Amino acid sequence: MRQLVSDMAGRDLGTVMLHLYPFGGIADTVAWAARAAGRQMAEIEDTSYS
Q1: What sign has the CA pseudo-torsion 10, 11, 16, 22?
Q2: Tally of CB atoms within 10 A around 35
Q3: How many CA atoms does the CB half-sphere of 22 hold within 13 Å?
Q4: CB 1 within 8 A of CB 40
Q5: Is 21 in contact with 27 (CB distance < 8 Å)?
Q6: Cα 22 to Cα 14: distance, rounded to the nearest angstrom
Q7: What is the pLDDT of residues 1-38, one digit of tens each?
Q8: ∠ CA 46-30-21, rounded to 5°
Q9: Backbone angles phi and psi of 16, in degrees to 5
Q10: What are the DSSP E strand ranges found in the chain?
Q11: How far apart are alpha carbons 14 and 37 in whole angstroms?
């Protein structure tokens, strides 16, 4: 996620919208998104104390 944010920094991409494809159903998609958000928050916390 950090690499994606870094590569997109400073670029004008217009309006970017999130689109989730269900991974076996909405419950699995929500679970995946929650895990991904948790990983992103952990990365942010790791770098904020450096």
Answers
A1: negative
A2: 10
A3: 4
A4: yes
A5: no
A6: 25
A7: 788 888 888 888 888 777 766 667 888 888 888 888 88
A8: 105
A9: -115, 125
A10: none
A11: 23
Gap between the Cα atoms of 25 and 22, Å rounded:
5
- The identity of residue 1, as a single letter, is M
pLDDT of 47 reads: 66
pTM: 0.41
Query: And the tokens for 4?
Result: 């994606």
Alpha carbon 48 to its chain centroid, in Å, reads 17
Q: What is the pLDDT of residue 30?
A: 83
Q: With CA atoms as reference, report the closest residue to 13 among 2, 4, 22.
A: 4
